[in-house]
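Reminder to self: tokens first, then the designed residues, so the page reads top to bottom the way the pipeline ran.
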């Protein structure tokens, strides 16, 4: 996630990292060059000028703006829902730790094991969503070498971690270390964690339909390439400048939607899953009375992962 000290105008006008300009500068240069070439051709072919009026581009521009607005709203809804799910994960992780420490009448070692399992679930979910399962060694401090070795054969690592946690809770209940009246409370928390994972997987595995995205890209590209034809007679030598400004708006809107469509990646505008996971780990370990806590992650070049 892009972190910046201020959002005040006009400072944000000159930011490059995380902005759409860093993604669209090459197409922007291309459409500007195309507009320049068309203007030169227009001036040279005085007797055979090929031009259009601005009317069709005005109508199409309004329609395209609405179309891009709907797509960007859909992409932002995905981003915001993902953030709400991870906000719920923060709260539920703290609740699980409290329930384990206050409702389970067992040894400090077992308390530590169950809290560590919750930390492992959070990190496993992050790795699962970012398709970084080659980094499962990060779970070794919380689960041990043997269990992590078993998890390498699992198709869904966070679900496997949560399942084993449920088995441990069942064992404690059978041993009388969790009261029968408290068992449904703990189980409800594990169910919420499974719902959070399912919600994240739904966002991850169901992107905006590809046909919708392809159509948007094609219409924006066609509009920007042909726009000079509607401006040559009225704008003249300033046609490339006007085309660059209008194209920046449409290409930028298109790029913003693409950037936030999958909020679990590691682009500057995606969610800081690693920072959230580290925060949860520090909070839960502190509840165990530990003092050697991992430091909170800091932004690197203005980006918090």
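Designed residues (305 positions):
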């Amino acid at each position: 996630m892009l972190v910046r000290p201020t959002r005040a105008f006009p400072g944000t006008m000159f930011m490059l990292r995380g902005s759409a300009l860093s993604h669209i500068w090459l197409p922007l240069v291309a459409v500007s060059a195309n507009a320049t070439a068309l203007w030169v051709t227009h001036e040279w072919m005085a007797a055979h000028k090929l031009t259009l009026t601005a009317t069709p581009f005005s109508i199409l521009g309004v329609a395209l703006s609405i179309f891009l607005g709907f797509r960007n709203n859909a992409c932002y809804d995905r981003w915001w829902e993902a953030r709400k799910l991870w906000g719920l994960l923060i709260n539920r992780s703290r609740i699980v730790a409290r329930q384990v420490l206050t409702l389970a009448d067992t040894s400090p070692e077992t308390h530590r094991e169950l809290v560590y399992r919750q930390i492992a679930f959070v990190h496993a979910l992050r790795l699962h969503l970012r398709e970084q399962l080659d980094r499962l060694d990060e779970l070794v401090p919380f689960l041990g070498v043997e269990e992590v070795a078993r998890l390498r054969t699992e198709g869904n690592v966070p679900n496997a971690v949560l399942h084993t946690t449920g088995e441990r809770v069942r064992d404690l209940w059978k041993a009388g270390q969790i009261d029968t009246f408290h068992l449904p409370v703990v189980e409800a928390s594990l169910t919420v964690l499974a719902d959070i994972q399912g919600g994240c997987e739904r966002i991850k595995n169901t992107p905006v339909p590809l046909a919708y995205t392809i159509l948007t890209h094609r219409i924006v590209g066609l509009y920007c390439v042909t726009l000079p034809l509607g401006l040559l007679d009225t704008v003249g030598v300033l046609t490339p400048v006007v085309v660059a400004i209008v194209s920046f708006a449409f290409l930028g809107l298109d790029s913003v939607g693409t950037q936030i469509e999958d909020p679990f990646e590691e682009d500057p505008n995606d969610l800081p899953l690693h920072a959230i996971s580290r925060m949860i780990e520090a909070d839960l370990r502190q509840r165990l009375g530990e003092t050697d806590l991992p430091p909170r992650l800091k932004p690197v070049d203005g980006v918090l992962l």
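The mean pLDDT is 88.
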